[in-house]
Specification:
Helix content is about 35%, strand content about 30%. By secondary structure, the chain is of the alpha/beta class. The strands form three sheets. The protein has a six-stranded mixed β-sheet with strand order 6-7-8-3-9-10, with helices on both faces. The model has no long low-confidence stretch (mean pLDDT about 90).
Length: about 300
């Protein structure tokens, strides 16, 4: 039996003359959190909709939970789409019960699970509020509950943190980890690379309907070497402008993050130049952040596209 929860092979999807996915092949392992990343219009949502059988590929194959994708798998999938779909005049508990019944749960069980989830997400006091009375963040929690209520082995979460403040985003991150540890396979699509760093075991980066890179987060970051340098210092910040063979990634009072130019090993030179103006409290050489890899790969792909035009 395959160790993958999803397999795509040479998948193509067109909308008229526009190619949304172009010969996409990828494997998503079971029991892990997989990040599907890419800029707006890259083809992520089209891929998710083919996995959930909302769209049918023009060519290629999609295998989900060991079988060719089809409507018979819907009760084994929890899909949180980017476009939310709650009924505004229903009470929260009525909404949860309704979606639970749609997924085959008896009414009493849907209510029991719904109330347990409301408590887990610190939202039990919302039970009898109507959806239209909720903030965007509150609505997001309810939508998440309707997605996981039937204990699906496969969860697909498209921008699940939309509208959540940092405290509730952290709470949801904890819950997603719990679901993964309990055996669920999870696909996460988000633009927030910090959340990807904290959550994902594996990633694929999509642009213009093609896979630019894929692999475990550990493998992807290691391909780029330890080219990111963090300096924490005391003293005037204008020394940064005098540093050579580096790009400034992030700068704040007493802290700067630098990218060393490829092919250079001037770590000691950078520190020596800094010490001429400031006191170094801490220095660290690290692998690049996923955000920087994301930006660099998309920019390179866009440049290659222009050169090939």
């Amino acid at each position: 039996m395959s160790e993958n929860v999803i397999e795509l092979r040479n998948v193509v999807k067109r909308y008229g003359s526009f190619v949304a996915t172009n010969d996409v092949s990828m494997d998503i392992p079971k029991g892990r959190i997989f990040g599907l990343l890419g800029p707006n219009g890259a083809g992520k949502t089209t891929i998710l909709r083919m996995i959930t059988n909302i769209l049918i590929p023009d060519s290629g194959t999609v295998t989900v939970l060991g079988e060719p994708v089809g409507s018979h798998q819907q009760e084994r999938i929890g899909y949180l789409p980017e476009e939310r779909g709650l009924y505004k005049n229903l009470k929260v508990i009525e909404q949860i019960r309704y979606f639970g019944e749609l997924k085959g749960l008896p009414t009493a069980e849907a209510l029991r699970r719904g109330r347990a989830w409301l408590k887990r997400l610190s939202a039990e006091e919302w039970e009898n509020k109507k959806i239209r009375e909720l903030s965007k963040g509150m609505s997001q929690k309810v939508q998440f509950i309707t997605t996981v209520l039937h204990h699906p082995p496969l969860l697909i979460l498209d921008e699940p943190f939309s509208g959540l403040d940092p405290v509730n985003a952290d709470l949801l991150i904890d819950v997603i980890h719990e679901l993964r540890n309990a055996g669920s396979s999870i696909i996460l699509s988000t633009h927030v690379m910090e959340q990807v760093e904290r959550l994902c075991d594996d990633i694929a980066l999509v642009n213009k309907g093609r896979i630019l890179l894929s692999g475990s987060v550990r493998e992807v970051r290691s391909r780029y070497g330890r080219n990111t340098m963090l300096l924490e210092y005391e003293g005037p910040r204008d020394f940064v402008s005098g540093l050579r063979d580096v790009d400034v990634l992030m700068e704040s009072e007493g802290r700067v993050e630098l990218r060393l130019h490829k092919g250079t090993t001037q770590v000691n030179e950078v520190i020596a130049a800094a010490l001429a103006s400031v006191t170094i409290i801490r220095s660290e050489l690290a692998e690049p952040r996923l955000h920087d890899i994301f930006v660099a790969e998309v920019q390179k792909d866009e440049l290659n596209g222009k050169e090939g035009a």
